DNA sequence: TGCACTCAATCAATCGTTTGATTAATTTTG
DNA sequence: CAAAATTAATCAAACGATTGATTGAGTGCA
């Protein structure tokens, strides 16, 4: 039946996403993916044409779900600049667990030196998030809520970069934290609230500081 | 002569570093490296044991000088905790931006979770640097210089993560900053001092804050 | 029968590594 | 000192394994 075919393709994409995320494009083999997915190896080429076609299919599926997710970021006029930013941070940290293996894929692709159509597409989509936060920061500086000499681009790099570091280098962050950051229970119950608290305190100390912050 | 042998090994390491950085560990082949370096393929195994051994040799050469630098800072009794940390940040920013293509490689390999042998060794080497900074932070907390409720592991994640984000996602950070972060002149003359200033101000605001920082 | 799907078997290419022979350099020995 | 013995360095060739991809025979359903 048609639905079964779609389910099977989707299942292959699920497995491929995981394996590509763990091992990279070169490190992942088509045999491994087909074996893990429980399908014949020839199915990958039959469905997706090639290994690269499979990789692109994984990406496009994720990106389309990303785009709809981004649409419900609204601008609440009743909130202060800081409350908006705090809510952004909370929401952002909240989402790191759901897509964390895909996040690794995205960052690895973006770090490749060659400029591809794919990385341009990813950049464009991620910039929506970035610009959302940038707008909040700029507004807050304009209305005097935030430190006027704030380095906005670097502050954004800190928010995204800190999270990326924890997720993308799990070996190191696990050693630092004393727990396996890949353990979902620990992630949900301990690390998530901890990162939220830390990130807001860090950013607030930098942005909303009324003593001498110039040296 | 002995010096020639060292020069040849060094030349191989130079070439290997470039190719590994461009293509990743899996993407780079031993044939490509030996061909580019103008040596017989067997020499790689003769000198470095294996492809992985070659990679680790490249890696250790890169990081060893930074490691001793960090240790010298940490062991300097004449500096305050904050001055030590500030110097670490300065040196770190100074260093990574020069070697940014290799840094990207390291992060790519680390983000692949399953390759046990290689990533474990990289982790082990990088942890020396992490622990050096952790020691400075812990000392500063103990002697009252730093905020007592500092989340040390996450603060470290911020230092490393912010820098990683800037250089690993050059497309995005270039758009944010309004300049191409891959332009070496801009990197050297503008971005580097800017990141140093920002990073120290950010960390200081978080660590050395005497007003209410608990909410 | 016709069509979409599935499979084991196999393809050529490339991978990292090993081998055995050869040359260059060094040390030991008479 | 010179010949001999030993070690180190280098090379072309080939190793077995694995890679992504293809084949052609078969499957079951419409």
UniProtKB/TrEMBL annotation, chains A, B:
Name the SUPFAM superfamilies on file: Homeodomain-like, Tetracyclin repressor-like, C-terminal domain
User: From the UniProt annotation, which stretches of this protein bind DNA?
Assistant: 29-48
Q: Where is the HTH tetR-type domain?
A: 6-66
**Gene3D superfamilies registered for this protein in UniProt:** Tetracycline Repressor, domain 2 (1.10.357.10)
Q: Name residues in a coiled coil.
A: none
Swiss-Prot/TrEMBL keywords: DNA-binding
One GO molecular function term of this record is: DNA binding
Task: State the PANTHER family in the record.
Answer: HTH-TYPE TRANSCRIPTIONAL REPRESSOR SCO4008, TRANSCRIPTIONAL REPRESSOR
Record protein name field: TetR family transcriptional regulator
């Amino acid at each position: 039946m048609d639905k079964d075919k779609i389910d099977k393709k989707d299942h292959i994409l699920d497995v491929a996403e995981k394996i590509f995320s763990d091992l990279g494009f070169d490190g992942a083999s088509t045999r491994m993916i087909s074996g893990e997915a429980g399908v014949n190896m020839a199915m990958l080429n039959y469905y997706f044409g090639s290994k690269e076609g499979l990789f692109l299919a994984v990406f496009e599926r994720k990106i389309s779900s990303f785009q709809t997710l981004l649409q419900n970021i609204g601008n609440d006029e009743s909130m202060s600049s800081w409350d908006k930013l705090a809510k952004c941070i909370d929401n952002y940290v909240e989402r790191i667990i759901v897509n964390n293996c895909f996040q690794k894929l995205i960052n690895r692709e973006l770090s490749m030196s060659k400029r591809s159509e794919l990385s341009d597409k990813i950049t464009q989509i991620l910039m929506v998030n970035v610009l959302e936060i940038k707008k909040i920061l700029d507004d807050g500086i304009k209305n005097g809520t935030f430190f006027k000499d704030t380095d906005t681009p670097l502050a954004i790099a800190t928010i995204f970069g800190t999270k990326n570091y924890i997720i993308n280098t799990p070996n190191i962050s696990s050693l630092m934290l004393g727990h396996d950051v890949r353990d979902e229970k620990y992630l949900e119950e301990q690390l998530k609230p901890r990162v939220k608290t830390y990130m807001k305190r860090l950013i607030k100390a930098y942005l909303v500081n009324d003593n001498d912050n110039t040296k």
